[in-house]
Design goal:
heterodimer; A: alpha+beta; 2 domains; five-stranded antiparallel beta sheet; two-stranded antiparallel sheet; 11 helices; B: mainly alpha; Amino acid/polyamine transporter I; 14 helices; 73% helix
């Protein structure tokens, strides 16, 4: 269709073809309680219009790039002019333009080709299927990458703490949001990473650090198990990982049955057979639940890999192994960057202003300034914010 | 100046502070108790004032030469050959401090957590973070120091928890040890401030040089306050007589508090402090590697780096007895004082030999 007007020196053309497309639904992997229930779909134009519907400003810009020597797919960079840092926008545009590939079936292909540290276990770009989350990112000066045929949108630059933030943190009262954030961080960083490693360190090396009452129970529980703690933990951890993987691939009704069967029967039977102790069931169960509280699947996977590394280090060197790997992990986080911006900010390099939205989510009146992560051109969110 | 090595003056402050306090503070209260009785904290305060003065002089010298480090300055003042010899000696000094730091680290592990594990087995794991960070450059090493501050907060909170157990009469009467004893203990007190010379190595990498003096003075003030706190707390808790026979008073301090549920607080406290010990050792390892690259004009090479790390681990294995290790640390402390004097000497000579001095220097 072409639109021509007497008063315009140009014509406007647009496609008017009917495409088969999936309905707009709530993303399965990113549910929320108080936000919108819309999710991106595979059609790029629909996704762009969803963003346009939310940001009524001519400053919302889209830059398109065609990638894929064979597939010729459109990739769009979205940002808000005047807020997003144009140097970062240009750098990202250059990076995507330089991608040489025959085709990108999913947006993950592009992500892997443009990240600065492809050998790191930590995700450096955030993925989302939620338009409201994408809009929040745009308002913070971040940049979106959308791809034809993908309901997933990439957000960059991001920090480590971004992967523990959800839309619900901001749509609830700040105390509620902060409480949830604390639970998430405690679950992910303390329980999911350290609990199995601490169990191994304490039972194998530093048993004198276990309170006496617990030590007796622990000894009784371990007395029937022929394996060292590391084998015990590994048997259960690998089983849990397999159950998790199976549950994703199987249809929902079978997946639920498998999970229940594995959780209740295998666990109980393993204890009775003397393969693992009761306490290990509790520990592995707690770590599995803690892994689920991480909103980002990519970060959850990184934490699960880290858990295995910490477990091995604890089995070899006890608490010193844990400390050593902790230092190494933090050093790696400090070294990482997302689109050239420090990944472990605002902790290191320390940005005091940005600490307001990290471990706690302070009231909105403290959020007048945009986070410095994306080096926004306009620091202040709005006069009446 | 390279992208991976640039730091801010504030980061340099943390770098210096952690470097000065990480290893030395573990046994310093005992050394001071032997020399100055219960007045060790006064010795630290006086040494601290001297250290602040010397630290300021070093930054003044560096300012005179604008964008140059000590290796460039020695070449300008002493000429190429003598300058090179001095620089090579400085490199050896930094390398020896790094190795002795690792040696102390491994000895502490041996006497606290792993009495039966050979230190050669422990060395690679404890070195792993340093190997990674030093390879990445000064920026990563310096940024990590802000994470290490967590250990300091923990120690301060722990000392506050111990206040009820302390007998402040152990610190009285103030100045009882007398001027001669206090004077002779100044050198020991000054060992806590060894590390203030590192700014002379990394000065060209500091982005905001106008803040260098302010933050370098702050680093030494913080070191003075922290060491004074630890020395006073140890003296008030153990008394000078018992303190003087302890090997690692800071770790002994962690065994005093009985927390509910947590059976052995010391295991966690010692583990947390190992973070600071590692950082302190790493600072010198970084200085040694950076210096060698600069002085011997080496390009970044994995083979050289591997040899460098192996040599560091190898040297750290030479002494496995904690008492001998303390003796080595004492010698290193003296050499450190010598290095600081050398840098000050450069400042004096720069007044006469103005080759390379900046116009506004």
């Amino acid at each position: 269709m072409v639109f021509v007007s007497d008063v315009l020196p140009y014509g406007i053309s647009c496609k008017n073809t009917k495409e088969d497309k999936r309905n707009i639904e709530e993303p399965i992997s990113e549910k929320n309680l108080r936000g919108s229930h819309e999710g991106f779909i595979e059609i790029l134009d629909t996704n762009l219009s969803m963003l346009r519907r939310r940001i009524h400003s001519e400053k919302l810009k889209f830059k398109a790039v065609t990638i894929g020597a064979t597939t010729r797919q459109t990739v769009v960079i979205a940002y808000i002019e005047g807020i997003a840092n144009h140097e970062i926008v240009d750098a990202l545009f250059d990076k995507i333009s330089r991608v040489e590939i025959d085709g990108a079936p999913t947006i993950g292909y592009i992500e892997q080709l443009i990240i600065s540290h492809p050998n790191s276990i930590f995700p450096q770009y955030m993925t989302t299927e939620r338009p409201d989350k994408a809009v929040s990112a745009l308002l913070e000066g971040r940049i979106l990458i959308l791809q034809e045929g993908s309901p997933i949108v990439l957000i960059a630059p991001v920090t480590f703490i971004s992967f523990f933030q959800t839309v619900d943190d901001y749509s609830k009262m700040w105390i509620h949001g902060s409480f949830l954030r604390l639970i998430r961080l405690f679950g992910a960083l303390v329980i999911a990473i350290y609990l199995p490693a601490l169990y191994i360190a304490l039972t194998s090396f530093h048993y004198y650090a276990v309170p006496l009452d617990l030590l007796i129970t622990l000894a009784e529980s371990r007395s029937k198990v022929p394996f060292p703690p590391i084998i015990e933990i590994f048997i259960l951890e690998i089983t849990v990982e397999m159950i998790r993987e199976a549950a994703i691939r199987l249809p929902t009704y079978i997946g639920t049955a498998i999970t229940l069967f594995a959780g209740l029967i295998v666990g109980e039977a393993a204890v009775q057979a003397g393969i693992v102790s009761n306490l290990v069931i509790v520990i592995v169960g707690a770590t599995a639940i803690a892994s689920y509280v991480i909103p980002s699947d990519d970060m959850s996977l990184a934490i699960r890999i880290l858990r295995f590394i910490f477990t091995i280090a604890a089995a070899i060197f006890g608490i010193v192994g844990i400390v050593s790997i902790t230092v190494l992990t933090i050093a790696h986080l400090i070294r990482l960057d997302s689109l050239g911006q420090p990944y472990f900010s605002p902790f290191s390099p320390r940005v005091i202003d940005d600490l307001k939205d990290t471990v706690l989510r302070l009231p909105l009146k403290f959020m007048k300034k945009r986070p410095k992560t994306a080096r926004p051109q306009d620091d202040i969110r709005g006069e009446n914010f | 100046m390279t992208e991976n090595n640039t730091i801010t003056a504030k980061q340099m402050m943390r770098f210096t502070f952690v470097c000065q306090t990480g290893v030395g503070v573990i046994n310093l209260p005992a050394l001071l108790a032997r020399e100055a009785g219960h007045d060790g904290w006064i010795s630290v305060a006086v040494s601290g004032i001297i250290a602040i003065f010397l630290a300021s002089l070093i930054v003044v010298l560096l300012r005179r030469y604008s964008d140059k480090c000590i290796f460039d300055i020695t070449r300008l003042i002493f000429g190429k050959i003598i300058g090179f010899i001095i620089n090579a000696l400085l490199c050896i000094y930094f390398f020896l401090v790094a190795s002795s730091g690792l040696m102390m680290f491994l000895n502490y592990l041996k006497i606290t957590l792993f009495p039966n594990t050979p230190s050669i087995v422990m060395a690679p794991l404890t070195m792993l973070p340093s190997v990674y960070m030093v390879w990445q450059g000064t920026k990563t090493v310096a940024r990590f120091k802000s994470i290490a501050l967590f250990s300091y907060i923990l120690v301060i909170i722990y000392i506050i928890l111990l206040i009820k157990e302390m007998r402040f009469s152990f610190l009285l009467p103030v100045g009882e040890s007398g001027l001669p004893a206090l004077f002779s203990s100044l050198k020991t007190g000054f060992f806590a401030f060894i590390g203030l010379e590192l700014i002379a190595v990394f000065y060209p990498e500091i982005i905001d040089k106008e803040n260098a003096l302010k933050y370098h003075v702050r680093a030494n003030v913080y070191t003075m306050l922290f060491v004074m706190l630890v020395v006073a707390a140890c003296t008030a808790l153990f008394g000078e007589n018992f303190l003087s026979v302890l090997n690692t008073p800071l770790f002994n301090l962690s065994r005093v508090f009985h927390a509910p549920i947590i059976e052995r607080v010391d295991v966690y406290m010692i583990s947390a402090w190992l973070l600071a010990v590692g950082c302190s050792t790493r600072a010198y390892l970084m200085a040694a590697y950076y210096s060698m690259e600069k002085v011997f004009k080496l390009k970044k090479s994995r083979i050289f780096y591997a040899l460098f790390i192996c040599a560091d681990i190898g040297l750290s294995q030479l002494i496995t007895d904690i008492n001998k290790a303390f003796m080595i640390l004492g010698i290193i402390g003296w050499v450190g004082i010598g290095v600081i004097i050398l840098i000050i000497l450069c400042l004096v000579l720069s007044m006469f030999k103005k080759n390379g001095v900046a116009e506004n220097g």
